[in-house]
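Model it.
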Amino acid sequence: MTKHIIGLTGGIATGKTTVTNYLASTYNLPIFDADIYAREAVSLGSPILSAIAQRYGEQILLPDGSLNRQKLGEVIFNRQDERNWIDNLIHPYVRDRFLKAISQSSSQTLILVVPLLFEAGMTDLVTEIWVVRCSQEQQLQRLIQRNHLNREQAQARINSQLPIEEKVAHADVVLDNSSTLEVLLKQVDTALKTMSGN
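Modeled.
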């Protein structure tokens, strides 16, 4: 049996976490999350964190020596070249962690949650791509509320990712999260049933 490896992606604040939690709690599917691996990559004492501190100086660190994410965000959200530099350090680490997780898992269906699935060139790791989407206004409002940003900051974060329509164009399954939670979760049920029916 070949493994079903679902790459779950979407835009920032479109509802990936909601879908992930549902897949884990209702279907007991193993979830491997790129954001967790990316945080691991820059953990205290890691070579990647040292490289970041060398490039940007001590002000990029918190008093305990760990990464000041907010400071780093300010640097990379406005500068594509700096974001590329960071991505080139972190993405290979994340890819290695995914490969290890896939090879060690005995489950037939795995979920890889990869917000930057396309941007990081990780589509080759998955057998099926699920994209969670909602309207741009909803995405903006959710992001403003969740991260306490102003409209301009929220828009800059959305703009830093590939447009959602481009992701949708490459999706095997599109989960539309512009209605109610119930409607969203029904789409997840249907997508899984269709997949297991193959």
